[in-house]
Automatic annotation (TrEMBL):
Signal peptide: none annotated. SUPFAM superfamilies: Winged helix' DNA-binding domain. InterPro entries: WH-like_DNA-bd_sf, WH_DNA-bd_dom, WH_DNA-bd_sf. This is DNA-binding MarR family transcriptional regulator. Keywords: DNA-binding. Residues 21-98 form the Winged helix DNA-binding domain. The lineage of its organism: Bacteria, Bacillati, Actinomycetota, Actinomycetes, Micromonosporales. The keyword Signal does not apply. One of its GO terms (molecular function) is DNA binding.
Amino acid sequence: MTDPVPHPALELDEWVHQKTRLALLTVLDEAGRADFPYLKRLLGLSDGNLGRHLGALAAQSFVEIAKGHEGRRPRTWAAITPAGRAALGAEMAILAELLERFNSSRDGKK
């Protein structure tokens, strides 16, 4: 008897799949780089919450954080890394597979 194939949902990456981190990686993939106020406004996050999630993604080398100035104002930017793009791509592939399985099961139940 062969072992069953693990369900694709078990392959979701905990570092990427959390909704705020998935949103951050998706936004950064689209934009390439974004500043802290833009991400905060777009995703409706507090400073602490955004900082914590960016820190978690940076610890996994999925984003790079850069600090600098725009004129006299200090700025913090986040950019997705190649590892972050790869992790996001893998996550999206698993989600696509899950969606396909879901839709296939619904087609047979009509």
